[in-house]
Amino acid sequence: MAETSDARSSDRRARGRPRAWSDTSGQNVIKSLDRGIEVLERLGEMGASTLSELATALNQPPASVYRVLFTFEARGMVDFDPDSQTWNIGAGAFLIGSRFLRRSSLAERARPALRALMEATGETANLGVERDGQVLFVSQVETHAAIRAFFPPGTLSPMHCSGIGKALLAQMPPRRVEAVVRRHGLDRFTATTLTDPQALSRDLAETRARGYSIDSEEKNDGMRCVAAPIFDMHGEAVAGVSVSGPALRLPEDGLPELAREVVRAAQRITEGIGGGIRPGQ
Q1: Are 39 and 69 in contact (CB under 8 A)?
Q2: Predicted model pTM
Q3: CATH number of the domain that 55 lies in?
Q4: Which segments show compositional bias classed as Basic and acidic residues (predicted)?
Q5: In terms of residue numbers, what domain contains 67?
Q6: What is the DSSP secondary structure assignment for residue 50, as one 8-state letter?
Q7: Is residue 186 domain-resident?
Q8: How far apart are CA 262 and CA 207, in angstroms?
Q9: Do 95 and 134 have their domain in common?
Q10: Residues 87 and 193 in one domain
């Protein structure tokens, strides 16, 4: 007898969740596990941290945080440096995180374009996506120059002062941009950081008009970045590609020429994932 669609749907639900656990509300959250993940996430944000620093940042007792760290250390998720008495994200966390990249062909298909972009410009090429209102860097091809930008995969950066962040914000509807600003604010990092919503809005309008964004020492003094959006098959901006480097090697009068290489790389990646720009964009 042919299997009905209702039966197939029921089977899929059973495989995804126990039948009796259709409720996905907070009552099914394992609180100890949730707290453990919070420790791991905060350690990732802070970098090398002592137990007391991490406990203070989390507003949790040091003994509780230590038990979480000890458990993660046994799994290779965190490392402890006895000389500096600091904890760091471990190789185990990287291995799990790297499996996220294998879910999509984006990073893999972008790699040749990133390498070509680095070779054409002589500067570091980056690939990033939006994650919860921030830029998540997922791939990078570093320049061979001694002084260079460095955004290792997994790094998170505010969108309002990032080349890739502004390239993606410029493609979002105003309400979504406002939601990102409300959630994360417009923190100042340098004298040129855009901390006024109207100034940011004007910058995003210019970005849309020319097809690429510019981060002119807005996150780090002495560093510039040019970025362009990557579009999926629906014409939606799903990622961004950028070139970043010291301002001395990226003078303002040379940015338009650099931008042509960046836009060309973005177009190559867009085509590589079967994407395209919506008519009228």
Answers
A1: yes
A2: 0.67
A3: 1.10.10.10
A4: 1-13
A5: 30-102
A6: -
A7: yes
A8: 13
A9: no
A10: no
